[in-house]
Design goal:
This protein is an all-alpha fold. It has one domain. Helices cover 82% and strands 0% of the residues. It is built from 5 helices and no strands. The longest helix is centred in the C-terminal third of the chain and has 36 residues. The protein is flat, with a radius of gyration of 22 Å.
Length: 123
């Protein structure tokens, strides 16, 4: 390896204990969900619970768009919860994430322009 090549940071760093625990937790969660979905009653109960919780958070996000509060974040969170069980929500989540990313970029650009204006007025 020459001095100009950038080493791969993931290859040079061993897996941390936290990453291994998180990976094991995700595997156990996936196994639990597969077993639960194998039984029709527990599957329907789970989907209903996810629909109620995700729907309430989504509704709260829509209300917070009009009233004070983090409306966009609640909408994305509600869609993320719903997308664990419903394909239509997964598609909407992708759109909502792109929208949130664009909104964050616009807010940063406005803040940057304001800083530039203040700097030019002072200088």
């Amino acid at each position: 390896m020459t001095g100009t090549d950038d080493p791969d940071p993931a290859a040079s760093r061993p897996t941390t204990a936290r990453a291994r625990r998180w990976r094991r937790f995700r595997v156990r969660l996936r196994i639990w969900r597969m077993r639960m979905h194998a039984h029709p009653v527990s599957s329907a109960t789970w989907r209903t619970a996810v629909a109620v919780v995700g729907g309430l958070i989504l509704l709260a996000g829509v209300v917070m768009c009009v009233t004070p509060g983090p409306g966009a974040a609640a909408i994305v969170l509600g869609l993320a919860i719903l997308s664990t069980e419903f394909a239509w929500a997964h598609g909407m989540l992708g759109y909502a994430r792109r929208w949130a990313h664009r909104a964050r970029q616009k807010a940063r650009a406005v803040r940057r322009r304001g800083r530039e204006r203040r700097r030019l007025r002072r200088g």
